[in-house]
Amino acid sequence: MRKLLLAGMVLAAMTTPGFAQSYKFVIVPKAMNNPFFDFARDGCEKRAKELGNVECTYKGPVEHEPATQAQIIQDFVTQKVDGLAISVADVAAMTKSIEAATAAGIPVITFDSDAPSSKRISYIGTNNKEFGVALGKQLLKLRPDGGKYAMISGGPGAENLAERVNGVREALKGSKWTEVPGSPSFCNDDPALAVQQMTDLRTATPDLAAIIPVGGWPMFAPEGFKAFASKSKKEMDAGKFTIVAADTLKMQLELLNEGYANALIGQRPFEMGEKAMDTLLAIKKGQKVPEIIYTGLDVVTKDNVATMLK
Fold it and tell me: Is residue 14 pLDDT above 60, yes or no?
């Protein structure tokens, strides 16, 4: 009788919050110097605190370096963490990393950038093809007269960015817009390089009518971007040069509000971080999760930017 009583006490203790199983989940961005991922980190940490039995660790390469990202993931596999959420910098490299983590019994999901043919369980983020289409449609709405345009992308091995580029092209197909040779240029998520590429594009094609960065990189260096845009401000105000950019971080909204861009199409990285924690926890509990979880888009122009800044 005494043994049964003790067993019951132990079982009861293990089901109380103090004895609830805890999990260490890791969110791995493409690059930690990209402020976009700061919001995913903040969402991850907020949701982990709310859940109580989850720890959110945020670590990735300082700069966009797929090889370094792969090494960081291998280190976490060695540590036997409870789950990984990865923004895929390079599909080929990350497919191998995801396979290694899965073989070690660690569930892997992707966020922001996917590796759809890998062994990842779920993808959380933007429908990147629709994102690119939205960028192209916004340019077409602002400038139906057309002209020459160029795109700036990040890393050539990122599937999400390739989908955005294809989406822009799809939206502008059959219109009066034509893409210049050498587009897109690849900045490898380097804000300063992205600003320089904008300058180079205008120099190479003096009658360039629009630039579409499919990520927010040039605007993540606000002073450099402002210096570039200031030289084209009169043309922008006259509708002869247009910038439609991805993402809606505060610095970008401020630049748009000041007239240094024409429109922004934004993602929801904070929500990506939150949902990453929920999804990994559900997987650890043996629950079925959706393979694809889209977090939506926001269209911001001069008409609603003040509201977005509040």
Answer: no
Q: Decide: 136 and 170 in contact? Cβ < 8 Å.
A: yes
Determine what percent of the chain is predicted with pLDDT higher than 70. 94
Q: What is the pLDDT of residue 5?
A: 40
Tokens representing residue 74 in the block? 């291998």
Whether the upstream peptide bond of residue 218 has omega within 30° of 0, thus cis, is no
Co-location of 261 and 170 in the same domain: yes
Q: Is 53 exposed, middle or buried (CB count within 10 Å of its CB: 0-12, 13-18, 19+)?
A: exposed
Give me the torsion for CA of 103, 107, 110, 114, rounded to 10°.
40
Residue given tokens 């890791």 in the structure block: 26
Residues 149 and 66 placed together within one structural domain of the fold: no
Same domain? 94 vs 203: no
Count Cβ atoms below 10 Å from residue 83 Cβ, excluding itself. 24
All residues at 6 or more sequence positions from 66 whose CB lies less than 8 Å from its CB, including other chains: 89, 90, 93, 94, 155, 157
Residue 117: burial class (beta carbons within 10 Å; 0-12, 13-18, 19+): exposed
Based on the fold, state whether residues 118 and 144 are members of the same structural domain. no
157 phi, psi to nearest 5 deg: -95, 5
> Does 306 fall in a domain?
no
- Per the structure, how many domains does the chain have? 2
Tell me the residue range of the domain where 95 lies.
23-125+269-295
Are 132 and 156 within one domain?
A: yes
Kindly report, residue by residue over 214-237, the tens digit of the pLDDT.
999 999 999 999 999 999 999 999
SS3 31: coil
Q: Residue 17: inside a domain, yes or no?
A: no
